[in-house]
Structure formats: C-alpha cells, structure tokens
Amino acid sequence: MAKENSFDIVSRVDMQEVLNAVNQALREIETRFDFRGSKSRIIFENKPEITLISDDDFKLRNVIDILESKLIKRGINLKALRYGKVESAAGDTVRQVVTLVQGIEQDIAKKIVKAIKDSKVKVQASVQGDQVRVSGKNRDDLQLAINVVKGTELDIPVEFTNYRTI
After folding, report:
1. What is the pLDDT of residues 94-122, one digit of tens each?
2. How many angstroms separate the Cα of 45 from the Cα of each of 17, 22, 50, 113, 138?
3. How many CA atoms lie within 13 A of 44 on its CB side?
4. Which terminus has fewer CB within 10 Å in the chain: N or C?
5. Parallel, antiparallel, or unpaired: how do β-strands 131-136 and 124-128 relate?
6. Which residues are paired to 119 by β-bridges?
7. Does pTM surpass 0.85?
8. Is 15-100 assigned to CATH 2.20.25.90?
9. What is the protein's known function?
C-alpha cells in the first residue's frame, strides 16, 4: 500500500506574543517624551482584538507605529491585523479597534485550493474548517505545493503545519 503524505495550511497568531508586544509598546508609550500627559493607551484582553486609544489622529498613528514595530520584533506578521475605522471616544480621544485574524476564511481557502489545482501539482487540497489540508503520494509534490502557496498573493499570513505520513 502506498503511503500518503499530508500537511495543513493554517493562519494563526500566537496570543502570548501579542500580549508581550502590547506590554512592550505600553512601556514605550509611558516613557516617551511626546506621550507625556497623553491619554494614549492600548487595551488587549486576550480576545482577538486590540483597542488603541489616543488624544488625536497623529498620536494614534504613533501608537500604531510603536505597536507594529513591537509586533514585528515578536515575530507577528502584520498581515494578521485588520484595522477598523478611527472613531471618536469619550474625553476628546479617538479610538481604533485592530482585529487579529485567526484561521483561514472560506474565500481565501478557496483561492489557495484553486492555486494548487491550477499548478497541476499531483496533490489534493481540501478545505477543512479554518484550514486547508494538502495530501499527496510524493513529498516532493508537497514541497511544490508549498512553493505555489508561498507564491500566491494572500492577505493573511500562512503557516505549514502537521506534516505526516499515513
């Protein structure tokens, strides 16, 4: 019987690393001269969203820059962030909600499957919930499928996990 190899394509964010990045960003905001006396803060409660609050749009943009730099240093891909619109908040402040993308949405999963099928690589790709499973007889074909997915323009960060031989 021939062995079947497979792997999963997933999109996930390490919430502990996000928490660490938020804490580092808060520490920098507290110590920076241009934020002295400011109402700028970052709220993250282990939900897949971060709330940014600041005095005005300019300081909010600076808070975003600080947060993004800390996320990059912690290994979080910025494609995993979805920015909401800037809205007015209480006390002459502005607020913006940043959502963290977890899982692969159906339309993006279909795009991945289509890209793999269009490449004519001898593998099967199927959507399974919020991930895509790719299976095939040859490991080299799986490597080609990984390269196809890496070459596809996606709006989310993807990881290749759960390699196995059945």
Report:
1. 999 999 988 898 889 999 999 998 988 89
2. 13, 10, 8, 34, 44
3. 21
4. N
5. antiparallel
6. none
7. no
8. no
9. Nucleotide-binding protein.
